[in-house]
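name: query_chain
kind: protein
chains: 1
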Amino acid sequence: MLTHTHIPPALAGGISDRAFRLYCYLVLESDGDWATVQAAADACNLTNHQAREPLSELRAEGMVESRRVYEMGVHGRKTWHTHFRLSHESSEAAA
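structure:
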């Protein structure tokens, strides 16, 4: 059975391989929920720092949205964490 999926124009070019991998993670694994940078990086075999720029690329293309949350870190003190999810338009296209 052949199904057609609309792929946002940015995927045709203009984004990096890492950005594409992170986008695929968000489409396939996040179920539209917010994902931390660390979770996305771990899933794509990247470090936290290697994932930040590609996620910014996706945000600039309007494919994902982000929010910053002040929450408890792994070392027991509050810190800012950035979360990402597919933008509303991207999640409809991926469905």
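note: The mean pLDDT is 84.
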